[in-house]
Design brief:
Oligomer: heterodimer
Structural class of chain A: alpha/beta
Number of strands of chain B: 8
Number of domains of chain B: 3
Number of strands of chain A: 10
Order of helices and strands of chain A: EEEHEEHEHHHEHEHEEHH
CATH class of chain A: Alpha Beta
Shape of chain B: globular
Strand content of chain B: under 5%
Largest sheet of chain B: 4 strands, mixed
Helix content of chain A: 40-55%
Number of helices of chain A: 9
CATH architecture of chain A: 3-Layer(aba) Sandwich
Amino acid sequence: MIQVRGLTKHYPDLRRGRLVALADVSFDAAPGQVYGLLGPNGAGKTTALRILSTVLRPTAGTVTINGFDVVAQPSEVRRRIGFMSANTAVYDRMTAWEMVEHFGRLHGIAKAELAERMEALFARLKMNDFRDLLGAKMSTGMKQKVSVARAIVHDPPVLIFDEASAGLDVLVARALLRSVAELRDQGKCILFSTHIMREAEKLCDRIAILHRGRILAEGPLEALRDQHHERDLEELFFQLISQHDEAYAASNDLSLHSGRRQ
Amino acid sequence: MNWSNVRLILAREIRDQLRDRRTMFMIFIVPILTYPFLGMIGLQMSQFVQQKTTRVLVFGAGNLPKEPPLVENNHFAERLFRQPGKTRLLELHLAADAPKPRGDLEAEARDAIDAGTYDAALTIPPDFGSRIDAYRQAVRQGNKPPQVPKPEIIYTTAVEKSQLACDRLRIVLEHWGDEVAKSFLAAAGVPEWSMQAVDLQTFDLARETGYRGAAMWSKVLPVLLVLWALVGAFYPAVDLCAGEKERGTLETLLSSPAARSEIVLGKLVTIMLFSGVTAVLNLLSVAATGPLMFSQLPGFGPPPALSPLWLGLALVPASALFSALCLAMAAFARSTKEGQYYLMPLMAVTIPLAILPAAAGLELNLGTSLIPVAGLVLLLRAALEGNYWQALQFVVPVLAITLAGCLLAIRWAVEQFNSESVLFRESERLDLRLWLHHLVEDRGPTPTAAEAVFCGVVILVVHFFLSLKSLPKADFPGFAVQVAVTQLAVVLTPALLMTIMLTSSLRQTLLLRWPRWSVLPAAALLAVVLHPAVNVLQVAVMKLYPLSEEVQQALTGLDAVFMQPPWWQVVLIVAAAPAVCEELAFRGFIFSGLRKTGSPWRAIFVSAAFFGLTHGIFQQSMIAFLVGLLLGWLAFQTRSILPGMAFHLVHNSMGVLTARVPRSFAAERPILGYLFHPSDQGGMAFAWPVVLAGSLATVLIVIWLARHSEAKPGDGGRGVPLTEGLPADV
């Protein structure tokens, strides 16, 4: 269970003085649910998920994962999540087996139990062909599978996938989405960020559309379609983003004019 | 700390490094190949240099005496060379014997050497031979011999081959000079063997002890140990931190259950292991190659038998220190390429510290043992030379300072791993105009830490160049102008200008506010009661690190300068000016900026370090640093610049005014004479009860100040201006 309340994150920025990566973001994700975080590049998705995985600290707001606060109890949170993103790469000088085993051990799983779990996992994800291949020699698809196995080896109740399918070919992306759906069916709470509409439509039970650090719309996909009278998610997404950009430009323009008048 | 996680990370990192070809090459292959290769090149080169023929232009060869012959068949006589058959090494060209003035000869020689036709020239003065004969005649007759003009070698130190020619000429001519002297003795009827009445022989005590040649090894091995421990730590550190960032695996690790401290420790121990192995392999390679190459050198022997033990023991703290430093620096780097840039600055600091003991002829004592790296090198040298008692005395300070450095570096590394801005630093294009605009337009109420450090560095650099230009003044007006210029132009102006340009609040940056009224007299009193203890400290520092004679003379001259004018003028220049200018700069601008690093203690420490460094002489800097710590603490506790100014004014006044108390003053008053008496070093020396009572009073005042602290709980936080939320009093 993920609970995000008023999440805000600022970065110092030379050009803009202060960059607001996230502004008062709130949402809930429940077990057995894939919660989609949809947004263009630079919307704040990665920042939000990095905060959820305790890699970054929020400027304001709270996040609890299975009842543990990401700021106060980061190690408890990390035990209960599996985090996978375009930035969580595979070690070049470790084999698939060694890599998954290493992270399993870091999660405190006993050797015998880990070996048993890994055998099942490697069979399920069809990874036995390259279990002894070094990361440097793996294809992108192999690496992605290793990352998934690494993220779920400790059987976490919460899984966070940040643009996990970015750069994958159709076959590998399809396999990844299938794995995510299976995990949802096992009762995991999954947070899935993407900018690919097809993936969101196929996979997500609830969606939040994030742009310039703000949630523009949030709810079950059907409800969003009804609310905005638009069946096509891509169109819906484009409308929301355009409206927000126009409003943003207008407010900037206004502040500039009022600034001049002063 | 979950030790199982540390072990897992350690095991992974070791395996990872062992699978990295670059690391393996640096650690295993480079040491094995480097020394034999260097030795081979060295031997080849020396062979080449030694065998090179040098050409010499000889003016006035006809002026040489017939006996003993110097030149035979257009070569120097073979008997004059150390080894037979070497006459070809000095190829002679005998110039026509027409007498020329000295200036013409020099010009001709210069042209020949510049053109590369000859490497050196030898001029034999016109009547040299006849004067030598006259000399011999006078010796034979027992008369006072006439002056003999000197032959001259003309060469240039700018060309190595010319130097080589000069060295060879000198050896040959000295040898020939000995033969001439012998011929004089023979002329006087003194037998040649009478010259051998006094002869020297040497006996090497180390010959039978296994320490033969230990002096050479004890200089070389510690430096090699330190340098290779650093290089061995550096490459794995860059790969383990910057490399992980670059490859994108750091985020994978950070989102695992391992805590940051566990990650740092796992990586640190890995780096230590590789640093240690690199150093050991290099030392083994030197030990194996050195004796083969240098066995011909006089007094050379194998390394002392116990050297592996001492080197092994010293390697642990050396590796720990460099590993922690490299880890922190590598964690800061964005990529392996950027990480490798940091090797240079690290080397630039470490190499002078490592070779300082040998270069400056330092001895192991309490003072030198407290210098990081240099202390360790000296301690190791003492152990390698077999001076165990001397080494044993200073093990504790050397280990303490090394351990302290190590802990600070580890803390720094953990901080780097906890800092988002470091872990997710992205490269930005440098836009100077935008940056300057940002500095001025987006300025906060107080400066940033970088601006504070920049201000400190500007003050230090300008101060340094000014001190090179200005000579010590012997009169008070000259001294007063010098101090006023330094304080106003060098210390105060940069701080004030930067406050105006880079901050939006003069009051918050310079801590301009009235503190609680009772704090000002308390701070002044603190300076009074602390004075005896500072005096004792000064004496102790001077004993540990004695002043050089030149500095001592300059300081004695200064004491006389202080005696000249009325007391208030001395106080104005020596106490009031620094109290205002230095406090505004160091406890004002610099301290306020450094507070943005998050830790008030770090701000106190670094501002005190800048304050200490501006005091020029090392011994004064140490005392100023310690006093600077107290001044920083005062500024932090009272949130005001004024108590520091009060303390500084009284502290400096006490120093100069006690020197003016006549020597008879205490002597004429028996009770006062017991408490203090004029010191030989100037000023007053206090009796122990006074020092103890003063120290006790100091502690009480410090406790009182801490209890009445005006620092708010939030002051430990990042960037909260000390005077925020307080009324503008000043």
